[in-house]
Write a structure and sequence with these properties.
Blueprint: H1 6-17, H2 22-64, H3 122-129, E1 143-145, E2 148-151, E3 162-168, E4 172-179, E5 182-183, E6 197-198
Parallel strand pairs: 5-6
Antiparallel strand pairs: 1-2, 2-3, 3-4
Helix pairs in contact: 1-2
Length: about 200
């Protein structure tokens, strides 16, 4: 405070030297006080402006600060359920009747096994016997026994002879002979009951 009054004292001293009055001193003192008051107000206003500026910067910085995202609870999707359609029912089907014509193969007394061959057909025996023109073997006349086969020909004239055929694994069915009565022993047959030859008792 004393430092600020030095100019005032200097002014008063100058006035005294020039014959100034006491009123001038009071006016100078009031003016000095007003100047000091204005200086204080200006200093306070500047300080307040600085405080407001700092507060505004802090507020802006706080507003621009990223906020932590709030976790949102999500429910897992419901499991999908596959819709299955029932399997179509299949109606039982009856077996289709065979349209194949009945076989014309002759009846055989010897079935195909590991030991004996199948009974040959009439056409096969006709080729083996080399029948004359107009002759044939009816399928009903063919009889088989083990490896032997007989066939009675159908011919224009009257006759009672039969054709005899024999089977061998190396050659197949072959023509053997023609006759009306055979001895089984002559044919090498010693066992069984063949229908085309007689066994000695």
């Amino acid at each position: 405070m004393n430092d600020n009054l030095d100019p005032l004292r200097q002014a008063m001293s100058d006035l005294a030297e020039h014959g100034g009055s006491t009123d001038m001193y009071e006016r100078s003192l009031n003016k000095s006080r007003q100047t000091q008051r204005r200086a204080r107000l200006a200093t306070g206003a500047a300080a307040a402006a600085v405080v407001f500026a700092i507060g505004g910067v802090a507020a802006v910085a706080g507003a621009n600060r990223p906020h932590p995202s709030t976790a949102v609870a999500t429910q897992p999707p419901a499991p999908s359920v596959a819709v299955t359609s029932p399997a179509p029912s299949v109606a039982p089907t009856s077996p289709t009747p065979s349209t194949k014509p009945p076989s014309s193969a002759p009846p055989s007394s010897t079935k195909a096994t590991g030991r004996y061959p199948d009974c040959p057909s009439a056409k096969t025996l006709e080729k083996l016997a080399d029948l004359p023109d107009g002759w044939s073997f009816p399928s009903s006349s063919i009889e088989c026994w083990r490896t032997w086969a007989t066939a009675a020909p159908m011919r224009p004239g009257v006759g009672d002879g039969i054709y005899l055929f024999h089977y061998k694994a190396s050659t197949g069915w072959q023509y053997h002979s023609q006759g009306s009565a055979y001895d089984c022993k002559d044919l090498g047959i010693t066992t069984g009951n063949p229908p085309f030859c007689s066994m000695e008792k």
